[in-house]
Specification:
Strand content: under 5%
Structural class: mainly alpha
Largest sheet: none
Bound molecules: zinc ion
Number of helices: 8
Radius of gyration: 19 Å
Oligomer: single chain
Shape: globular
Distance between the termini: 27 Å
Length: 246
């Protein structure tokens, strides 16, 4: 049991870092100092960053996400230590999970995958992929992942144009270009041919989630034709599933 204490500390610290990056990067695109989301005052203090996660000036809390992310990483640290999977070392897996966490939180909250994050992911993904399955299969995986999602991206634009012809305020695109980048990163990490399994898992789980969401909305009588769900988290799910559960 004692061995779990450093793991819990690692999980907590990583969760706190993911929270910080998810707050700072979408706002300023750099490692700016943490500020309160309500009053904007700088918050470099443990009361804000650790406990009770409240602004020292106005008392505004950081919200449920900050707690969920930290709890999630504490659980993940213990689980990946006990069962690291067959593909990656604990350290490589942990760095990847931290990266994917920031991508997921920002995509859910802002519906965007930042280009800077994609660049970091491409470099890190290529390095990890190269170690896992050599350079040729890594590059082929990246190209295939990028190309398939690029096709879906243009298909999405085409469908949206057909559907919203002559409609004011129609959405520009079905899929974001960040999803295309992330799909390429998935391909680098998983390599060829595992990228196909990863993409299939992502697309199936996204489809299932859309269906469940649609049914709930229909039951609530709030059906709307524009069903915008962020796809990044499902690509992340595909990567995590293939790397840690197969
Ligand atoms: Zn405040």
């Amino acid at each position: 049991m004692l061995a779990f204490i450093p793991l819990a500390v690692l999980g907590w610290a990583t969760g706190a870092l993911v929270n910080y990056l998810s707050d700072a990067l979408p706002q300023t695109r750099r490692f700016s100092q943490p500020i309160c989301r309500r009053c904007g005052r700088p918050q470099i203090n443990l009361g804000y960053l650790a406990f009770p996660k409240r602004c020292s000036a106005c008392g505004n809390g950081r919200g449920l996400r900050a707690w969920l992310v930290e709890a999630g990483y504490i659980a993940a640290a213990i689980l990946t230590w006990l069962a690291p999977g067959n593909h990656v070392s604990f350290l490589a897996g942990w760095l990847l999970l931290a990266y994917l966490g920031v991508v997921t939180v920002i995509d859910i909250e802002h519906r965007v995958i930042l280009h800077q994050m994609s660049l970091v992911g491409a470099v890190g993904g290529a390095a990890l992929g190269g170690i896992l399955h050599g350079v040729p299969r890594t590059l082929l995986g990246g190209v295939v992942g990028f190309a398939i999602m690029l096709l879906l991206y243009y298909l999405g634009i085409w469908v949206v144009r057909l559907r919203y012809r002559n409609v004011e305020g129609a959405p520009e695109e079905g899929l974001g270009f960040g999803d295309v980048n992330l799909s390429g990163i998935m391909g680098l990490i998983l390599g060829w041919p595992a990228v196909i399994a990863g993409l299939t898992a992502a697309i199936l789980s996204a489809g299932l989630a859309s269906l469940i969401y649609l049914v709930i909305m229909l039951f609530k009588g709030r059906y709307s034709a524009s069903l915008a769900i962020p796809y990044g988290p499902f690509l992340v799910l595909g990567i995590v599933y293939l790397l840690f559960f197969t």
